[in-house]
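Hi there. Long-time user, first ticket. I'm pasting a complex I've been working with (about 464 residues overall). I'd like to know whether the download I got is complete or cut off, because the file seemed smaller than I expected. Thanks.
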Amino acid sequence: MSQDPKRAVILLSGGLDSTVTAAVARSDGFALYCLTIAYGQRHVVEVTRARAVAEALRVEEHRVTEVDLQGIGGSALTGHMAVPKDRGVGARTEGIPTTYVPARNMILLSLAFAYAEVCEARRIYFGANIVDYSGYPDCRPEFIRAFETVAKLGTRSGTMGKPTEILAPLLMLSKAEIVRRGFELNVPFHLTHSCYDPDQAGVACGRCDSCLIRREGFRQAGVVDPVPYAVP
Amino acid sequence: MSQDPKRAVILLSGGLDSTVTAAVARSDGFALYCLTIAYGQRHVVEVTRARAVAEALRVEEHRVTEVDLQGIGGSALTGHMAVPKDRGVGARTEGIPTTYVPARNMILLSLAFAYAEVCEARRIYFGANIVDYSGYPDCRPEFIRAFETVAKLGTRSGTMGKPTEILAPLLMLSKAEIVRRGFELNVPFHLTHSCYDPDQAGVACGRCDSCLIRREGFRQAGVVDPVPYAVP
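Hi, the file is complete. Here it is re-exported in full:
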């Protein structure tokens, strides 16, 4: 009587957004095939958290793949520039920040499509968000649509009439709305990691753009953030 | 009086096509920034050859970056299936071969765009070819054009009005024409590697699709292939 559930690939970084995205995919009835990319980011603790999140969400499969983006450089997140701290909303939303990783989402989505071909998933859940990160061009809806077109033309499954779609359920939500959605879905917030510049033990700095946005989001949502910060 | 030459990124695999492509870029007057991706391919000897080719072509910079595609699987080239041997032209041009690596060119081009952003290159030379490899969807011109659009929307340089273009100078050439073009440009053919399934010492098998196509190409071009083969 039972039927295999539909499969979805989730780009799971171990951060708040991708974890809520995975929970949304599960509540949509999909079996979760999670892909974590270790790309030489400063916040490599993310990968450890991604494993813990995948276990907590009882995913079908979790793969961790390495891509050496440090060898290419050009970003504060891969150790070539300083991570900005204590910036107000004005500075954060002006231009493209130094934490932009060149072509990062193109690389991550390409790998997600490769994995989707292998596990025959017709949908990729992608935790991109445009409200708090308007400076990143590779989070915009027109980029995501164009990427679907590329994949339709350039993959075996796409050219054989079985295209894979990208769903970005958090794209238009504020951080507070993301926290509320996660709260409703019982997301293991305590396992997630958002800081761009954690200390050796993996403790969040509390002062980078990502920490500031996360903390404001929890505050606005009226939910306690269970993650400890170096600066209260 | 001297002016910096324009910069181009070359996806240099160490194979015949990418090496001829690099030589074309140099003859077009570009300073060469070469990127080799070690993606867990069976023919990892390619990476060693890519270094030798880069040195012979006196490139400006050569970076080797690792991407663990073996962790994703799904291809004969990353060790998950057998490499087909001794196939005639008919079988070779029918459908998508098992040597197709899921989303490979999406991944390679994404990394090339990342590198182009870092070294401020406005052009990527890409050795794709459609004549001998018509089965690979990610070598088709419409895929390449769609990829330029994605990159224009998703990269810092693209959104700032400095898009990077993809040039595939070999796209419509036969293998014999590629060999002739390489011969005119003094390409170090002896350093290049094409075999999908070399032995431990890196000697080409002479029987996989890639070897068969290469050997026919040299024969038709009337040029001696200086590379040794396990099967004469």
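A couple of notes from our side: Residues 160 and 186 of chain A are 38 Å apart (CA to CA). Chain A has a mean pLDDT of 87.
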